[in-house]
């Protein structure tokens, strides 16, 4: 600590202050014969505090209800526009080609199953909702004997569809498959193939529409 000496009518005295202090906050000490005073830096109010609505503006908004009129204008503007809602299920909106709905197993145009039992979908499924069992064919290729999906576990991430090398397992655009029991949501191979046969035109169109972006 550094000290300075000042004189006053009561005699000499010592004032202590920090040796190194920013100039902006160092108090200004005035040495007078009658008294000594300390002047602190004066804080300025931000200019935004000085700005604001005048009394006339506030009175105009209060008596003329300009805020209410502005809200009524927005309401009337929307009143004459076409509604954004649709009468579902009688009306249905467009669905993206990448929509992930009910699962399905596809076939080739010849009727042969596309699935080659590589089990990539089973391995990549984060919810472990897919169970596959396979056997070897006479020509050495593999085919599935069991393909189950627990739809109550599925999180619709689409990993199974993305990992399939032959576009066998897909998620159809169907979103209306609510059931009354849990057992109805345990899909087996026959159920998945039936979904694929039912939605094949839509599935092929969605895959073709999304092909340029893959």
Automatic annotation (TrEMBL):
> Keyword annotations for this protein?
4Fe-4S, Iron, Iron-sulfur, Metal-binding, Translocase, Ubiquinone
What's a Pfam family this protein contains? Fer4_7
* GO function terms (MF aspect): 4 iron, 4 sulfur cluster binding; metal ion binding; NADH dehydrogenase activity
Stored Gene3D superfamilies: 3.30.70.3270
Could you mention a single GO BP entry for this protein?
mitochondrial electron transport, NADH to ubiquinone
Q: Which cofactor does it need?
A: [4Fe-4S] cluster
Ranges where the 4Fe-4S ferredoxin-type domain occurs: 106-135, 145-174
GO cellular component terms, alphabetically, are: membrane; mitochondrion
Q: Which InterPro entries match?
A: 4Fe4S_Fe-S-bd, 4Fe4S_Fe_S_CS, NADH_quinone_OxRdtase_chainI
**Record family assignment:** Belongs to the complex I 23 kDa subunit family.
What is the recorded name of this protein? Similar to NADH-ubiquinone oxidoreductase 23 kDa subunit, mitochondrial acc. no. Q12644
Q: Which organism is it from?
A: Pyronema omphalodes (strain CBS 100304) (Pyronema confluens)
Upper taxonomic classification of the species? Eukaryota, Fungi, Dikarya, Ascomycota, Pezizomycotina
């Amino acid at each position: 600590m550094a000290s300075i000496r000042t004189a006053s009518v009561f005699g000499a005295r010592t004032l202590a202050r920090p040796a190194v202090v920013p100039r902006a906050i160092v108090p200004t000490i005035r040495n007078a014969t009658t008294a000594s005073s300390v002047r602190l830096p004066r804080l300025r109010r931000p200019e935004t505090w000085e700005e604001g609505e005048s009394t006339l503006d506030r009175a105009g908004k209060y008596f003329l209800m300009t805020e209410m009129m502005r809200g009524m204008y927005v309401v009337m503007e929307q009143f004459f526009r076409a509604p954004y809602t649709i009468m579902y299920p009688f009306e249905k909106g467009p669905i993206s080609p990448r929509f992930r709905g009910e699962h399905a197993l596809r076939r080739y145009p010849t009727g042969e199953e596309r699935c080659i039992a590589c089990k990539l979908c089973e391995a990549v499924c984060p919810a472990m909702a897919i169970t596959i069992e396979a056997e070897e064919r006479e020509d050495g290729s593999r085919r599935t004997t069991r393909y189950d999906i627990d739809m109550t576990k599925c999180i619709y991430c689409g990993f199974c569809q993305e990992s399939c090398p032959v576009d066998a397992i897909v998620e159809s655009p169907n979103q209306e498959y609510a059931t009354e029991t849990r057992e109805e949501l345990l899909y087996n191979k026959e159920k998945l193939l039936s979904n694929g046969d039912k939605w094949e035109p839509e599935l092929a169109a969605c895959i073709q529409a999304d092909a340029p972006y893959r």
